């Protein structure tokens, strides 16, 4: 019984850790071509991101850094969306906990 409880807690933790998504659009106000990312890593969608939606569960320790040509232009851990960001960007870096999210 104890082992079953531990396995269930581990599964619940893994679901929470990976329960995020970043949606990127090529036009303002969530229009145009879109791509969705649901795993940690560095991504270049092949277009300039002009609107986005970052969904991350409260306190799941997942964050996203937004980059434009290697320069940091934004960072969010809590959920956030913007249909008209102050800066366009062409790369995102998603990670957990204390991972360094570095623009390339």
From TrEMBL:
Keywords: Signal. Residues 1-19 form the signal peptide. This is 44555_t:CDS:1. It comes from Gigaspora margarita.
């Amino acid at each position: 019984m104890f082992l079953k409880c531990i396995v269930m807690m581990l599964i619940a933790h893994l679901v929470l850790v990976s329960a995020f998504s970043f949606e990127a659009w090529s036009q303002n106000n969530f229009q145009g071509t879109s791509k969705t990312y649901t795993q940690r890593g560095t991504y270049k969608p092949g277009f300039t991101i002009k609107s986005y939606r970052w969904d991350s569960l409260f306190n799941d320790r997942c964050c996203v850094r937004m980059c434009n040509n290697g320069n940091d232009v934004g960072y969010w851990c809590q959920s956030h969306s913007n249909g008209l960001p102050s800066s366009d960007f062409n790369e995102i870096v998603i990670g957990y906990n204390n991972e360094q999210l570095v623009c390339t």
